[in-house]
Amino acid sequence: MVDRETMNSASEAEPRRRGYTGTPRDPDRTSQAILQAATLEFAEKGIGGARVDAIAERAGVNKRMIYHYFGDKQGLYLAVLEEAYLRIRTAEADLNLEKVEPEDGIRRLTAFTWRYFIDNPEFLSLLATENLHKAENLRRSTKVLSLHSPFIERLRDVLAKGAAQGRFRQGLDPVDVYISIASLAAFYLSNRYTLSTIFARDLATPERLAAWCEHITHVVLASVRRSD
């Protein structure tokens, strides 16, 4: 049985292991520490099960600092959602899709999305939680549309360039193309344990994951290419 002193030492060590060294004298670092801790808590337990006390302990801050920076748990949850979208959209901007040939751009975006979902499972968990709540929290965001508009415009340019070269179909909707990519990636990962069980096939092996990345890239490219 673990005694209380050992548990306290472990909980104090967790923020240090994760690099949560924020203090009230360092507002940016403190708020980031809280956001990182809250991301894990909400991803693991949902908005209903998450506790402010647990987030404060994970972040290594006083609970009052959470209310100071984010108002309440709902405000913190919304900030976590916005930060999650900001991270993926920022990483996508670094792909420089406009600087490569259209087909390479689609390959790059598809592979990135697949790898990002694998490396950041909390992102899919947060989306699942928010969809259970029918996006009632995300609709309160004043930032979410501005985060997504530049990304969609870049993808629109890639598709238009491919169409102008005669490689892609005309009139492709970038939102539809992105939803196709994200759906093929997210459904597999969100359901890989049940799918592995019912089909008696381990879908979580590195080989299967790599094969699925190739598959969805092929599917997406086939959907945007001209058929004649």
Short description:
This protein has eleven helices and no strands. It has 228 residues and is mostly helical.
Report on this structure.
The protein has 2 domains: 1-71, Orthogonal Bundle (Arc Repressor Mutant, subunit A); 73-228, Tetracycline Repressor, domain 2 (Orthogonal Bundle). The chain contains 11 helices and no strands. The protein has helices spanning 4-17, 27-49, 52-59, 63-70, 73-93, 102-119, 121-132, 144-164, 174-190, 192-198, 206-224. The model is unreliable at 1-24 (pLDDT under 50).
CATH topology of the largest domain: Tetracycline Repressor, domain 2
Helices, by number, come to 11
**CATH architectural label of the largest domain:** Orthogonal Bundle
Strand content: under 5%
Series of H and E elements? HHHHHHHHHHH
The number of E-state strands comes to 0
Radius of gyration: 21 Å
User: How many domains make up the coordinates?
Assistant: 2
Helical amount? over 70%
Residue runs with pLDDT of under 50 for 5 or more positions: 1-24
Mean pLDDT: 89
| Principal-axes shape call | globular
Measured distance between first and last alpha carbons: 69 Å
